[in-house]
Amino acid sequence: xxxxxxxxSLMLLTFIVASVVAVPVMAATDPxxxxxxxxxxxxxxxxxxxxxxxxxxxxxxxYVNPSINTLPTAYYLSPARLSTINATDEITLNxxxxxxxxxxxxxxxxxxxxxxxxxxxxxxDWDEYTIRGTWSH
Length: 137
What we know:
The chain is of the alpha+beta class. 15% of the residues lie in helices and 32% in strands. The chain has one helix at 2-22; strands at residues 33-39, 48-49, 53-54, 63-68, 73-78, 91-93, 99-100, 113-120, 129-136.
């Protein structure tokens, strides 16, 4: 039993490290972009960000569209990974469904890069959970 727990723990740790390392080196593509994270069971260090993606069109509406989202999670677009600088309003969702962001003054221009940032937005205790979906700017 101990060996199984050790193997499962090692596999989970490998998955988390691979996810954190792989996201920043994603190749540039056209939106929508995908995201997916295992959110930790504690608030400290819980924020997750995608790679920065350059905005190439003035005719797109920024949005997040979670396909899996079971606990209240806050989303916003930011000009820097794992930053508390919000380029958009913050949207808290706990169910699947597309929601549009609103750009804050000074943000949203073509040629600027943004990432999606998410973090658990709740009080108390919770178990780790998965979020996944698409986003665009």
